[in-house]
Design brief:
Helix content: 55-70%
Structural class: mainly alpha
Strand content: under 5%
Shape: globular
Order of helices and strands: HHHHHHHHHHHHHHHH
């Protein structure tokens, strides 16, 4: 049963979604690390993975033209917004959160939802008119990022990746999502060979990124280099995908527990991202570092329940009878 299901999926993307949510969640765990809170990192590279994976599958199926956009966008909307509505209901019911419907719809509760729903519009237009010119589109988007950064005259220090808002992230994360669409249209042959070299190059990209981040945010004379930090992240995305889709990770994916953990946790990527911040607590810090594992497991269970609720909401707005089995399915 597992092997036949695997044939229908992109193993590398499943692995990257799993890795993305681990990194993103870890970056928000300062409270749980206590005096070791410097270890709560990885958010920028996790977010880059999240947007990369979001873009990867968009061009795998042909786009039928601009007239098909409403139906195409509706499918994206129906994938994301039931979970957004579910988390809004939970937050407003069980926590002291007061979101009106405008905030829920327009902002999605979190900055990345707003970005990704706007990105879909541009990605679709690119898919219709510029599908065969994605390298040029990537180059143009990179140029726009640089021009925008140098024209805005940001105060020092300024990071393209920090903060929970979206104003400084529009261009850089669009590049990562666009790069995902480009990778999705490529024929990949290198992932089967040189797996550890691919992993080494991916880690090298991360190291260069953090070094550039540290230098450009600490020393004002090097701040002009800050927008170029997206380049090592593109290296990271390219080689970590090749590694994730390689023979070693495929062998892990084909094991019973490997398949379950990667599919289950990676499949909850959106819901974990949405709900995690309300579940962090230092009440278990006395058992550090086991508190990290315990809290993460609680977040995963809460995310699964949230997804079940989101499926209930989604099915409620359809004419068909409730499908209770699919509503509680773990995948």
């Amino acid at each position: 049963m597992i092997s036949s299901t695997i044939k229908e999926r992109n193993v590398g993307i499943d692995v990257l979604k799993f890795l993305a949510i681990i990194l993103i969640t870890n970056s928000h765990m300062e409270l749980l690390y206590g005096k070791y809170n410097a270890l709560a990192t990885g958010g920028a590279i996790g977010n880059a993975l999240f947007f990369f994976c979001s873009g990867f599958t968009l061009f795998l199926k042909p786009i039928n033209g601009i007239k098909d956009f409403p139906n195409w966008y509706k499918r994206r909307f129906n994938r994301i917004y039931p979970s957004v509505l579910a988390v809004a209901f939970v937050f407003c019911t069980f926590w002291d959160v007061h979101w009106d419907i405008n905030h829920v719809i327009l902002y999605g509760g979190r900055w990345f939802v707003r970005l990704i729903m706007v990105y879909y519009v541009f990605i679709y237009v690119i898919g219709v008119y510029f599908r065969d010119k994605l390298n040029w589109v990537l180059a143009f988007a990179s140029l726009v990022l640089l021009v925008w950064y140098y024209c805005m005259n940001f105060p020092f220090p300024f990071s393209l990746y920090a903060g929970d808002g979206a104003s400084n992230k529009w261009f850089v994360f669009f590049i990562f999502m666009l790069f995902g669409t480009r990778m999705g249209t490529m024929t990949h042959t290198k992932q089967l060979d040189h797996q550890w070299r691919n992993l080494l190059f991916a880690l090298l990209g991360v190291v260069v990124f953090y070094v550039m981040q540290g230098i450009t945010l600490r020393y004002q004379q090097f701040a002009f280099l800050h927008p170029f930090t997206f380049i090592p992240l593109l290296v990271w995305l390219y080689y970590i995908y090749l590694w994730a889709d390689g023979a070693f990770m495929r062998s892990v994916y084909h094991t019973k527990w490997g398949y379950f953990l990667i599919r289950f946790i990676g499949g909850l990527c959106l819901e974990i991202y949405l709900i995690q911040n309300r579940l962090f607590t230092d009440a278990l810090n006395f058992m550090f570092p086991l508190n990290l594992v315990v809290i993460f497991c609680i977040i995963v269970v809460a995310a699964y329940l949230l997804r079940c609720f989101a499926r209930f909401i989604s099915q409620t707005f359809k004419d068909a009878p409730y499908d209770w089995k699919s509503m509680v399915s773990i995948y």
